[in-house]
Amino acid sequence: MTPAIIAASLCAALVVESLARAGKWLRILLFLPVVTPTVVAALAWRLVFNEDSGVLNTALRALGLPAVAWLSAHPWTLVSAMTVTLWKGFGFFMMVFLAGLASVPRELREAAAIDGAGRWGVFRSVTLPALAPSIVLVFVVSSIAALKVFDELFVMVKGAGITNQTVVPLLYRIAFEEGDYGLSCAVGLLLFVVILIFSLVNLRLSRARAEEGGGAA
Predict the structure, then answer these.
(1) Total domains present in the chain
(2) pLDDT, position 214
(3) I need a surface site. Which of 46, 59, 84, 93 has the fewest CB within 10 A?
């Protein structure tokens, strides 16, 4: 999910930045999923992915294609849950990239354009290197969020095989359905260590960016 959310949020940020007045309204529209409760979003998307009467399978049948078991078969269970996570999260990370784009000197872009670089050349040579800290930040934060995903899976694919889910639903099942609290604690501690490592990396990156900002000032 992390590469997909980086690509989607970066593309959205580039589109919003390229627009004038319409960009402000588009920014608000794209940010709305972020403030939508996860359970509400998962329930709405469950209707889309419903295997009997959902929008996607209805469209597939209309095209003469077989229906897909979005909510019960691997890997479609993860794809459907990741779609909700992507839809809810990319607006927040779009704002991170917009902040990064605002810090890219316009003079460098104009100089690259004068030297004959097209839009892709300006993006590859000027914009993308300047966005490297933002990309790393989004990678770390979205990875932490992906490790903690639970609501989407619990609402959308509850009852599906545990091998089709992620670590937190596994922990929930072991503790509250099977009653093996020792094993669930071990899984929880392992997950805590992994998330702690990502969090320390994020903290170090945040401090480095703050020091760079202070030095530039």
Answers:
(1) 1
(2) 54
(3) 59
> Which has the closest alpha carbon to 5: 133, 137, 161, 107?
137
Q: Where in the sequence is the domain holding 62, given as residue range(s)?
A: 2-216
CB atoms within 10 A of CB 116: 7
Between 26 and 110, name the one with better pLDDT: 26
pTM of the model: 0.81
Rg (CA), the chain: 21
The angle formed by the CA atoms of residues 120, 141 and 2, to the nearest 5 degrees, is 55
Residue that has been written with the tokens 């295997």 in this structure? 51
Residue 159: pLDDT band (50, 70, 90) is low
Query: Is the backbone of residue 29 left (phi > 0), alpha (psi -120 to 50) or beta?
Result: alpha
CATH (domain of 154): 1.10.3720.10
